[in-house]
Design goal:
- The protein is mainly alpha-helical.
- It folds into 4 domains: about 140 residues, Response regulator (Rossmann fold, 3-Layer(aba) Sandwich); about 100 residues; about 100 residues, no CATH class; about 80 residues, Tetratricopeptide repeat domain (Serine Threonine Protein Phosphatase 5, Tetratricopeptide repeat, Alpha Horseshoe).
- The chain is built from 20 helices and 5 strands.
- A 5-stranded parallel sheet has the order 2-1-3-4-5, with helices on both faces.
- Helix 9 packs antiparallel against helix 10.
- The longest helix has about 35 residues.
Amino acid sequence: MTHMKLEKPVVIIEKSLSAKQRLVEALRPFCPPSDEKIKKVKDPSDALKIIKDLAVIGEGVDLVISDLFLNEDMNICGLVREMEKIPSLWNTPLVVYTNETEEAVYNNIRKDIVHLPFRMLPKSSTVDAIGEAISGLMAYKVENRHYLELETKLSAFRQTKNISLLPTALQMIDKCHKEHPAHCGPARMNLLKGKLYFEFWKLRNQDMESLVGELQKLSPSDPAFARTEKSVSNLASEIRELKNSAERYLLAAYHLEPESWECLHSFYHFYMEDGEFKKAKEYLSRLVEIFPTKTEYFFRMGKIHEFEGNFSNAIQCYLDAFHSTLEEGVGNFDENDVMEVIDASLNVGREIMNEIGLAHIEAGKLEPGSKDHAKALMLRKNNAQIRSALLTLAVKHPKNADYLNKIGITYRRAGDYPNAIDMYSNALEIDPGNPRIRVNQAVVLALCGTWDQALNEAKKAGTLNDDPEDAKAISSLMDILGKKDQKRLLKILS
């Protein structure tokens, strides 16, 4: 067998740094087993730094070989997500070299792979089998580069937000399909066209909002009114054409590959943008069937339920999202994604507490087996998961006042006021000028019966605040605290 030579470094990630002899032997025909070419590291985070640094200087890596590393800081799924964010790494072959043989584990990794050539190899593989797998990945990389180059160029087109470039982009897609039909087949090309039209449709929708805003400011007697009204009409026609073209090409791709998660994912976004939540939910449900442990899809389903006002189903989806996140490890996810789930959960939790009339989660006060009792139990579990995720983030970022503030909210909702006060106090040490944290502190102090201290905190919040809407809420709170009105206080809590 003739092996393609690996000119760039190979990164091997293994806890023991004693990469299996068979693996090293299988790599010899591809590259010399030197420290210069084969870089062994213990931690995926260190590996990611090496890979990124090599990409920045334009060298890159030819191959990444990793064990699963199911640890809290980062595992192979976290590594994949980070590599997928960097276009220059999209065509980097990845081998997961592991004793794990479960198909579910393979699917859990695959759910985040969009651009990386990927193979899962058992450590029991022979030298020949390993060599054959690496050869296959390298050959795929060579052939697939045409598609990835096209996608990279289209991404640059979309970022310009210049719709006049659309015909040029469509011609590039057709040319790539004609010259490289194996890796630029009709399903892939229709999907690219659909996504391209979809992006420009969204951009023109934004332009329409601005134009309608301008029209509303004009009087019908103003000479500019007729011109602007005509521009709105012309833009509306253009928007309809872009939307119809996006849907047409997405449908064409879907009919060619009905099980393609990329098509389903695109359709979900398309119908969400169009406000057709029922259709969006249909495609999202299919995605959940394909990837039953993907945090992102649980979260998105929760948002649809939230838009529909079905808060109980929303919180259940957020529970599932947290379960998936905490099981894999918060460190494997982008912190902004984790905070999205946390913020959505806190908002929906407030809505449910309103529904069942609770100031904090007291399942014991509700009739066992009732719907409200079930909601309270669900909220208690969700509250604990929010706190667990936030505590993990707070350990990594001890100077982040927002994390501590939100941990305080979870303690307050649980009725644990002393811990809530401690968290708010810690948050204020970091960010003493934050009026919202002071409001939260004031509320809990009042719940503990220290009304005068609570009022002082609310007054400080008032002097620090510069938001007119918040000013009204703070003024109302000061009135409640000044009158020591427990009923009104409990009413505003949920």
